[in-house]
Amino acid sequence: MIIKGKEYKLRILHNVVAWNKTAEIIEKYLNKGNEVAVEGKLTTRSYDDKEGNKRYITEVVCNEILMLGNK
């Protein structure tokens, strides 16, 4: 992204949920800052926080992950 002639890198973080073998691979090989491509279903769920307020969270439920590189 370029703002007023200065280039900036854009970093977007998403909540991703993985299960079974996919979760095991992520745990073993990925670290914070690794670049990945994720394929999955975008879902929204709700929960009650400590004060009893209903909160909503949107997550990607991962079907497949592709490791792109390191930070």
TrEMBL record:
It holds the Pfam family SSB. One of its GO terms (cellular component) is nucleoid. InterPro entries: NA-bd_OB-fold, Primosome_PriB/ssb, ssDNA-bd. GO terms for biological process: DNA replication. GO terms for molecular function: single-stranded DNA binding. PROSITE patterns: SSB. Keywords: DNA-binding. The keyword DNA-binding applies. The keyword Transcription regulation does not apply. It comes from the Bacteria. PANTHER family: SINGLE-STRANDED DNA-BINDING PROTEIN (PTHR10302:SF27). This is Single-stranded DNA-binding protein. It comes from Polaribacter cellanae.
